[in-house]
């Protein structure tokens, strides 16, 4: 039975694919079988199989409806109407055309006029795109491509129910002594929402390199995989570097709402209970202060996570003006980790081994020694103000509100009390030599 042209073309496509992939010996058999089926000459068949390329059908070009005459008239009207957007221009075109023709500012053919009256706002924007670029107006990019902040979803304080270990909140605590000018140290503080496990580390500044070092220290210090990271909207967190870090290690990156401190309620509480209560509000800029702070945070991380019980809010209800809160039984982060079934047995064994060698009294003495070292060193010098170029007349030693500084504080700060005791002790030491012999 003789094959038609379409059937021979289909067979050529099939045999050509096999012929290109086959070895030299296999090609002899494929070529012989192809010649037998199609009846082609052997030399022609070999040349056909080697050079066969299936033709790609050309896409049919639709005829252009809005030509250059429509585009030129539209650009002229656009300039007269003060370069307005496509939607407004589409709405103003009928009346504008009538007025321009009435005053003989624009004389259009009937076909061009009918096309302008039926044009849509999207077509107007497309036809005016080149004119906008000539005027230096860049087309707006999509939010996902243009802005990092829009790639990071928002998580509010009410979305932390039944969180797994590894979903953490993170924040930076400034040690500037009330003066934001000049260089000073920062504390990168992170807490796990589920267990309360808190890790504090010192960073020199808010540069991306320092933030990456702090993130890697946090990742290594956590006794469980880092699953999620929730921060505020500061530029030290909302940038491409932190976003790439989270994507590389499969960490869910979220942020709180701007100007809503309660979205970071877990870390805000730890900023006061762990950082401010132990290092105060002084300005730290010197190397010996940084060494003392790093050693202090090493002890604080152990003391807070293994020996400081915390309570988690379980229920909250309001009756009129009164709010009733219920908390669970106080437990240390270490005990909460041991109670979890999703923590590996090897990790629990490692934590028990660390806990067995820890002496809370010894850690407390080391914390007191390092705090005394910080107090005796004193706060760092206050830099010159950028606005006036002169030193501040009144040096601010901490950033507490004025109502908390005057008189007896409502929430006692142990570090500030130690400062007062050390100040009183130094005054007594100065007065003692002046007494009676």
Q: Can you put this structure into words, describing what you see?
A:
The chain has 437 residues and is an alpha/beta fold. It folds into three domains: 47 residues, no CATH class; 71 residues, no CATH class; 229 residues, Ribonuclease H-like superfamily/Ribonuclease H (Nucleotidyltransferase, domain 5, 2-Layer Sandwich), CATH 3.30.420. 49% of the residues lie in helices and 10% in strands. Helix 11 links the parallel strand 4 and strand 5. The longest helix has 21 residues. The chain is extended.
What's the topology here?
Blueprint: H1 5-21, H2 24-38, H3 42-51, H4 68-80, H5 86-102, H6 110-117, H7 121-127, H8 129-134, H9 143-146, E1 167-174, E2 186-192, E3 198-203, H10 208-221, E4 228-231, H11 240-248, E5 252-255, H12 265-279, H13 287-307, E6 313-319, E7 322-327, H14 333-339, H15 345-356, H16 360-377, H17 402-405, H18 414-431
Parallel strand pairs: 1-4, 4-5
Antiparallel strand pairs: 1-2, 2-3, 6-7
Record keyword descriptors for this entry.
437 residues; alpha/beta; Nucleotidyltransferase, domain 5; 3 domains; five-stranded mixed β-sheet; two-stranded antiparallel sheet; 7 strands; 49% helix; extended
Structural class: alpha/beta
Shape: extended
Mean pLDDT: 85
- Helix % is 40-55%
> What is the level 1 CATH name of the largest domain?
Alpha Beta
Q: End-to-end span in angstroms?
A: 134 Å
Number of helices: 18
Biggest sheet strand line-up: 3-2-1-4-5
H-E string: HHHHHHHHHEEEHEHEHHEEHHHHH
Query: What is the domain total for the residues?
Result: 3
CATH superfamily placement of the largest domain? Ribonuclease H-like superfamily/Ribonuclease H
* Main sheet characteristics: 5 strands, mixed
Number of E strands: 7
Indicate the low-confidence ranges by residue numbers: 390-397
Strand percent estimate: 5-15%
